[in-house]
Amino acid sequence: MMTEETIYLGAGCFWGVETALGKVAGVLKTSVGYMGGTTQNPTYKTICYGDTMHAEVVAVTYDPTRTKLALILHVFFNIHDATQLNRQGPDVGTQYRSCIFTTTAEQLAIAQNSLKIAQDKTPKPIVTTIEPAPTYWEAEDYHQQYFAKNPYHPNCHLFNLDAILASFTG
C-alpha cells in the first residue's frame, strides 16, 4: 500500500524548484502555488507586488516508504541560497523567500534537523523559516510543470542534481 505525505517548500522562483524536486525518487507529484500570505485566492499577478506576503512554493507529495524527507530537504537546501533574505538571485521580494511549511510533527522535526545540518555547512546565517502549513493556493495552470511546457526557457536554478543526490549521507 502506497502512503503519501505533502510538504511545501519555497526557494525563490518555483519553476526550478519544482523541476528539481520532481526528479527525486519517491516524489509522487509536485505542483506550484502560493502560501503564507494574507489574501484569499491569490494569483501570480497579486503576489508579484510583494504586499500579500505569499511565498511561491512547491507542494511536494512523496511516499515516505520510498524516500526520506531528509533527502528531499537536502535537495531543497542545495538548489538555492538559504542565506538570502526575501530573494534568490535577481528575484527580489517576500514571495521569493526561503521557507518550509510542514503538515506533521514528524516533518517539523526533520525540517528543523535538516536546517541545522545545512547551517553547519555555511558560515552565513540561514534565513529559511519553518512553519505549520497554512492554506495552499495552487498557481495558475501555465505555471505548473513550467520547464516541461517551455523547454527552451532558461532554468532559474542552476544545479547538478546528480551530485546533490550523491552527497546525501542521511
Overview of this protein structure:
This protein has one domain: Peptide Methionine Sulfoxide Reductase, Chain A, CATH 3.30.1060.10. The mean pLDDT is 92. The chain is built from six helices and eight strands; from the N terminus they run βαβαβαβββαββαα. A six-stranded mixed sheet has the order 7-6-1-3-2-8, covered by helices on one side. The chain has a two-stranded antiparallel sheet with strand order 4-5. The two termini are 25 Å apart. 28% of the residues lie in helices and 23% in strands. The chain is an alpha+beta fold and 170 residues long. Strand 4 and strand 5 form a beta hairpin.
Summarize the structure.
The chain is α+β, with helices and mostly antiparallel strands. It has helices at residues 14-21, 44-47, 69-78, 105-119, 146-149, 161-166; strands spanning 5-11, 27-35, 55-62, 87-88, 91-92, 98-102, 129-132, 137-138.
